[in-house]
Specification:
48% helix, six-stranded mixed β-sheet, four-stranded mixed β-sheet, globular, alpha/beta
Length: 296
């Protein structure tokens, strides 16, 4: 299709068939996730464009190491996650995922409960308090949809699309897709998408609250970077506490949620040094603006 024009999932896969690389060794030697650090922002790119960035075991392992490094690196405060090529992520790599679970034992299922896909961002490393922005450049289907939902802010290209395609293949979400769909879009929308397996284009995703903003494809990364810049202007201690609190209050009773918010909110200033510095700067700017207004 033309740039920026939505294409159905079936047509997308027809135009962009998932094929093995001409040189399998070349893909083995190529990093399946690109990890770059610049100006306090981690840029993470799923790098299996020939497989529509499907999540195989090697990619999941690379992402696990990346998220762990991002969480622990004091020079990084925000991450932007996107996909190489025409898709964000087509979900699990069926060539490896299906045989794994077809031959799995009950203990394999129990062990898997500790670690989700996408390097654990869906489950296992989902408690990272630094913000993660998804720049959704194309199809986000199955586990790719679950990975997008696990991010804190979702910016979509106008050509992006979403779908719970697992149900078409005899499965349903198992990596946070149902949990987060209900929390983000509500039970009605979660059941609609999960029972029909239908594809959702970017404009409908925005109406449902699945994404925060839809932009032309050529503005996607710059928009995600602007969101990162807005986050970086704030107190990192405050925004990390806010994210932690938001995740912790989901599912709690009203009284418990209000108590937790009060404790976390009033303690988020720590020893108040940063608060004093920021208030002093704010007060100085107000005085400067006021003096300019009173000048003849």
């Amino acid at each position: 299709g033309r740039a920026g024009q939505a294409v159905s999932g079936r047509e997308f896969f027809r135009q962009n068939p998932v094929t093995a690389p001409s040189n399998a060794l070349e893909e083995d030697q190529m990093k399946k996730a690109i990890y770059e650090k610049k100006d306090r922002v981690a840029h993470i790119t799923l790098n299996r464009p020939g497989a529509l960035n499907a999540l195989d075991e090697a990619l999941n392992q690379e992402l696990w190491s990346i998220w762990r490094d991002f969480a622990n690196d004091p020079t990084l405060d925000v991450a932007i996650l996107t996909g190489a090529g025409k898709a964000f992520c087509a979900g699990a790599d069926l060539k490896t995922a299906i045989p794994r679970w077809e031959n799995a034992s009950m203990l394999d299922v129990r062990r898997n409960a500790a670690t989700g896909i996408g390097g654990g961002l869906t489950r296992g490393q989902h408690r990272i308090t630094k913000p993660v922005i998804a720049a959704i450049n194309g199809l986000a289907a199955g586990g790719g949809f679950e990975l997008a939902l696990a991010c804190d802010i979702r910016i979509a290209a106008d050509s992006a699309s979403f779908g719970v395609f697992e149900v078409r293949h005899g499965l349903h979400q198992g990596d946070g897709g149902l949990v987060r769909l209900v929390a983000i879009a509500g039970l009605a929308a979660a059941l609609d998408l999960s029972l029909t397996g239908r594809e959702v284009q970017a404009d409908e995703a925005l109406r449902l609250g699945l994404v925060n903003k839809v932009v032309p494809a050529d503005e996607l990364l710059s928009t995600a970077e602007r969101y990162a810049e807005m986050i970086l202007r704030n107190s990192q201690q405050a925004i990390r506490s806010a994210k932690e609190t938001a995740l912790d209050i989901v599912g709690r009773s009203l009284d418990d949620a209000l108590r937790l918010e009060a404790i976390n909110g009033y303690s988020s200033g720590g020893d108040f040094r940063e608060v004093k510095e920021r208030l002093a700067k704010f007060s100085g700017r107000k005085k400067e603006a006021s003096s300019r207004k009173t000048e003849p």
